[in-house]
């Protein structure tokens, strides 16, 4: 094996999962992790239920970069942004002008929050939370505030809404869809969730589009496309993420929705790999924790000399809305089939079956979440 290091760009769950898996297989291989942020380790999913669980930004950080570096025996360079990748020279150029060679390069650069095209003098003050630094700003901004508006009723918007409601804030959620979790749940399940969150005090403004946000004294005024107006002390945007593909794209690496890889997590360049929120693996962008674990194990084996394709089993996601526990495994949108729904006041069990009766996805809400372990093995793997 070459003496050049494996260079990992990114210190999120994906970057650290690869470093850990590589270390398990090879204690000698030099590993350098470059991170645009502080480089410490934390579990990002904790950000959207930290108020309810009594966590602070400081207690969410599990280990700082220095501790991770000594535990994993890797070099970590925090606040070190990679500017460009030189494919032919197998090196990366840092923002400080330094160049660094690699034997293998791992892109674990995550995703950027999508910003809605809004007008108004307060648009720049709307915050998104996609990392611990954002979360620190969010918690700071919440001080002395009472009424919060959240743009987006997807997974992250609903989780933050429930967390803020538990902590005693008045919460508005605005979304263009007809029910919360519009992309993950069939209508009946979405309405059930909406009722439970409404009972927890959350006010929904659905089939609604915010167009303009302006400051009014210490508050914000949100004007909807159809003229409705609401006011809030703070506005959080949670309208989705877009894989960070720019670094790969400017280096001439093929990108589609994400950085395109095969099942070996390999881009067109056999020494450059991608995983996590930035990656599109065999056509799938899956911005969740479980795919990262599977991808990191396969990638580490490949980099250590045993080419190993990634397999994705069914990977249901728990939605952290205590007012309505949910576990969901959404069907691939290309599958033709329909939802079979069994609903009562204790919960909803929704199964998505194709024409032959094979199960392709499910949504379990309330008491039905107990059936997760029995139903999951009936699902087809996501990547066999
Ligand atoms: P990131 O954590 O975004 O890491 C990207 C890293 O790349 C960062 O360190 C960044 O600084 C670095 N970087 C970027 N560009 C450069 C550059 N040019 N040079 C150097 N460094 C660079 N998933 C679940 O499965 N279950 C959940 O319950 C769940 N809850 C969530 C709650 C919230 C609030 C959020 C935001 C996400 C949640 N997710 C959940 C999704 C999950 O957390 C992500 O899929 C995962 O953390 C992504 O990890 P990553 O390492 O790919 O990206």
From TrEMBL:
Domain of life: Bacteria
Listed GO CC annotations: cytoplasm
Needed co-factor(s): FAD
Domain (Rubredoxin binding): residue spans on this chain: 309-379
Record bears the keyword Flavoprotein: yes
Keyword line: Cytoplasm, FAD, Flavoprotein, NAD, Oxidoreductase
Annotated InterPro entries: FAD-bd_OxRdtase, FAD/NAD-bd_sf, FAD/NAD-binding_dom, Rbx-bd
Gene Ontology MF terms: oxidoreductase activity
Subcellular location field: Cytoplasm
Every FAD/NAD(P)-binding domain range: 6-284
Predominant subcellular localization, coarse grouping: cytoplasm
Entry's family note: Belongs to the FAD-dependent oxidoreductase family.
Protein name: Pyridine nucleotide-disulfide oxidoreductase
